[in-house]
Amino acid sequence: MRSPLPDYLTEVAEACSATKGGEPASYIPELAKVDPDRFGIALATIDGEVYAVGDAEHEFTIQSISKAFVYGLAVRDHGLEQVLAKIDVEPSGEPFDELSLDASGRPRNPMINAGAITAHTLVGEPDTAPHERVERIIRLLSDLAGRELSVDEDVWRSEVATADRNLAIAHMLRSHGILTDSAEEVVSAYSRQCAVLVTARDLALMAATLANSGVQPVTGKQVFTGAQVRHVMSVMLTCGMYDSAGDWVSSVGIPAKSGVGGGIIGALAGQAGLATFAPPLDAHGNSVRGVETFGRLSRDTGMHLMKVEPPARSVIQSTRVVQRGGESMRIYYLSGTIGFSGAEFVARRLSQDPPEHHAVVLDLTGVHSVTDVGRRMLLETARRLRLDGHEVYLVDTDDVIPDADPGDGRRLPLLADQ
Ligand code: GLU
């Protein structure tokens, strides 16, 4: 059988290529030379499968998409508290290159240039030379992509030659004591970060690393911790799409970051990394076809942050009574992934409709995984059933609740499949 995924993505690409409009970025002259019809889509799963269609292997510059990862690197190098002291995490609602700081004198968030330039200078030790910082950043981006990346020297030169706005931002940051390095050096190094060449396939894997709690799905390298990723993705969600973040969250609902090179990445925790490449941009600076594609993918796949299948109602699949050694036992067949709401449902059901039998069995054969809070709540439920005089057993052939001690010193006895 042939996987339907490539065919599906091709269909999406065909449908979305009908979307016209927008212009490739031209404020960096070299970017305006791109073929506006280029269009690629890539999706990387958290176990490292990549589906790539169209121009997904074509290289272009990462631009602002790098901001999300470099911010993560600053947090990795200095800890969240120190970084938050320098850069806030509030959506600005302003254009990406606005010369502005918040009331406390910090850039409003790391996804606008003022915050991104600050984050860039937080990479490495304070005495790290600008070229070493860039090397560290290229190392990070290469680790995320799973291959060695390089800089497009022409785009870099073109951006440096026209960087008045970013120089103004750097001087503003210097005047507030946020930057101490020379504005020219910082902007030149930051422009190299923006000029790193990637493909949509690379970007999908970089996004999938975020979706996979910081572990690159192909190489297995732990690039960020789970906590760092959660923070970066939260900021992407609220600030990642320039000044159209609110519209994006409601219509697409995937933490994302776009760049003026025409790329957009999106990552949904535990699901997948997505990337598109299509150079014409809308008035906010987001790729027109990329926005359209993400909307379509989000609708078709249900990958919207606010669309969570309600596990609670289906957690108890069925229940029945069996006879065993002359004793009757009430079995509850649980299923799905049990987190807080699923475990709450089980606890509520067992408290509101208490089992009439002495022996109670929680059959976990249909359960894929139990979150930490789910595990603690199920074990507490078992402990309370015991206090009410019940004997509680588990059927747990896949060991989804290893070491099931409800805290009263006696593990829950395991039964074979019922
Ligand atoms: N290098 C670009 C700049 O700082 C990145 C902008 C972007 O992709 O939004 O102007």
TrEMBL record:
GO biological process: glutamate biosynthetic process; L-glutamine catabolic process
Any Pfam family matching the protein: Glutaminase
Reactions the enzyme catalyzes: L-glutamine + H2O = L-glutamate + NH4(+)
Domain STAS: residue ranges: 327-401
Alphabetical UniProt keywords: Acetylation, Hydrolase
GO molecular function, one term: glutaminase activity
EC number: 3.5.1.2
Entry similarity comment: Belongs to the glutaminase family.
Record-linked HAMAP family: Glutaminase
Subunit text: Homotetramer.
Protein name: Glutaminase
